[in-house]
Every structure is written in structure tokens, then in C-alpha cells.
């Protein structure tokens, strides 16, 4: 077996060890005692990730054999970031607020609770909704109420946001919803160490360490450069990982670091397209996280993943005209095969995760 396959074996080792040695060793099983005792990567900058990339020429990182090299095979014939930039901006109400600035939380005068729901753009009646598609909840209070009937199972979703908007918390909370209901989950991180992810979730009371020890959760931390070099192997092995681990939900945090490994736009689009297609083929409900474009909070950094995804959630900063305090707001940009509110709603990052204020409006 090649080194490229090690990531997959590490992810499954806990499940095999749990079966073979449960009676002898009740302690928590590590995914890989040798490869996961490295330092946290939470301080890695974009420049450091880029400098460590082996892709310095027009071909980007080492390409898998099945990549689409010819322009005629490229599933994208336009520059999506440019197309989206020229599209009309979504209407978020009567506000003239700007977006950007530093993180903030808390409810203030910029949020208005409308008891008569006079500003609700959509009124849903659950009794009128019928569907043969199996659906799930995201697991975030307030947000699930904005989605009529839930998100279709086996969807590929993406959460777009700037630094500090809670993308990682969003992904962890999404997995916790499955774990607490007895399902299995996989978390692949390119930004943090395995221990940091466990600590973050445990601090919020989500007992990820216990779920991992019980064999319900697999956390795989990969270096972005390692993943780019092994992408062909990872892409081919993902369906096997999902099947053998019996995973119901998977999170990749974040796809932006993977995209940065490819300098050539055509190569980047083809690789991301192939990778997301492998996730869909695996039949697992998947959540990707992505950095927002620096000039437009509604668009991912490279303007690709939102077009490949079945659902898009946008996390953004909202700054009032008087600059008193920066707020956080969420909107659902799209969900295929599901009705949903198109309003922008405030949310908070708390010690218990993300909470969306469904009955509040932003001015």
C-alpha cells in the first residue's frame, strides 16, 4: 500500500482497533499515534499554505490521472466568480449596512423583533408540505425553522463566510446533530489539529472525545499540501471510507485551502469538480466550509463550490451606520428540492454553538 493511502487507513484504524481490542483496552483510541502528535496548524496563514504548495507552474499540484486536462472536457466554460460579481446582489431588506470589519455578537438595537411578522417574506405551513425525499435537520436552532421540511439527505452543502463568522462551529454542530441521534460522522480538517477539534467540541458539551472512543466519529487532520498531492487517492477512497465507517454525515473544513493548491483556474475547477462529485457518489450528506471572497460576502473565495453544491449558507458581518458594534447574520442562498426563507437573520456564537434568531430582523 502506498503512502497516499495512509490517510484512509488511519481513519479506519480506530474502528478496527475498537473491534479487536475493546475488551483489553477501554481507553480512547487514537486515529494515528505517530502522525497525529504534530503541532496545531490553527496559526497557518494563507501565505504559508501557498508557499508549501508544490504547485508553482501553470499545471498546479500533481494531477491525478483521471483529471480533465482539455478545455473541451472542462465542465466550466465561464469564469463563475466574474459572472457572480456582475449578478444583482441579494435583497436583504431595507438596510444600507456595509459588510466587513471585526467579529461581534450580542443582540442590540440593530435587530428588531416583529411579533406580527409583518416583514416575513415567506409563510410556511408544515401541514401543506409533502415530499418523498428523506430529509434531515442541520441541527442549528432557528436555522432549521427557516428550512421547510429539512435538507434532503445526501446533499452537498457549503457554508461560506469570512474569518471569525463560525464556519468551523457550523460544521461541528452539523455533525453533533447526527452523533446524538446514534449516527456516525467523519470530520476532515485542513486547518486545525485533531486534538484542537476535539477540545473545541468538548468545551461546548458535545462529547466528541466519547463519540470517537465509541467508534461513532472519525477525525482526520490532513496537511493541505499532503491532500493536494494525494488527492487522486483520497478522491477514490472516500466512498470506501464512508461505506466501511457507515458514515451518515461528513464535514470538510475547509475547501478553500484545497483550492489554493492549484494556480491555474481551469485546473482548480476540474479538481474541485471531481472531488465534489466523489462526495456525491459516496452517498453521504456533506458539509463543506469555504472562505468568502474579500470583496463580496456572498461569494466563495474562488467562486466555484457554490455552483457545485445543493445548498449554500452565507455567514456574514453586518455593520450599522453608526459603527457601534459589528453583528453576525446568516442567509440561505439556495437549497435544491426544498423551500426556505430568503431573509437575512441575526445569529450568535455562544458557548453552546450557533443560535439563529428566527423572529428577529436586521435594520
UniProtKB/TrEMBL annotation:
<feature type="compositionally biased region" description="Acidic residues">
    <location>
        <begin position="19"/>
        <end position="34"/>
    </location>
</feature>
<keyword id="KW-0547">Nucleotide-binding</keyword>
<dbReference type="InterPro" id="IPR027417">
    <property type="entry name" value="P-loop_NTPase"/>
</dbReference>
<protein>
    <submittedName>
        <fullName>KaiC domain-containing protein</fullName>
    </submittedName>
</protein>
<dbReference type="InterPro" id="IPR010624">
    <property type="entry name" value="KaiC_dom"/>
</dbReference>
<feature type="domain" description="KaiC">
    <location>
        <begin position="134"/>
        <end position="363"/>
    </location>
</feature>
<dbReference type="GO" id="GO:0005524">
    <property type="term" value="F:ATP binding"/>
</dbReference>
<feature type="region of interest" description="Disordered">
    <location>
        <begin position="1"/>
        <end position="114"/>
    </location>
</feature>
<dbReference type="InterPro" id="IPR014774">
    <property type="entry name" value="KaiC-like_dom"/>
</dbReference>
<feature type="compositionally biased region" description="Basic and acidic residues">
    <location>
        <begin position="35"/>
        <end position="47"/>
    </location>
</feature>
<feature type="compositionally biased region" description="Basic and acidic residues">
    <location>
        <begin position="8"/>
        <end position="18"/>
    </location>
</feature>
<dbReference type="InterPro" id="IPR022420">
    <property type="entry name" value="Circ_KaiC_arc"/>
</dbReference>
<keyword id="KW-0067">ATP-binding</keyword>
<dbReference type="Pfam" id="PF06745">
    <property type="entry name" value="ATPase"/>
</dbReference>
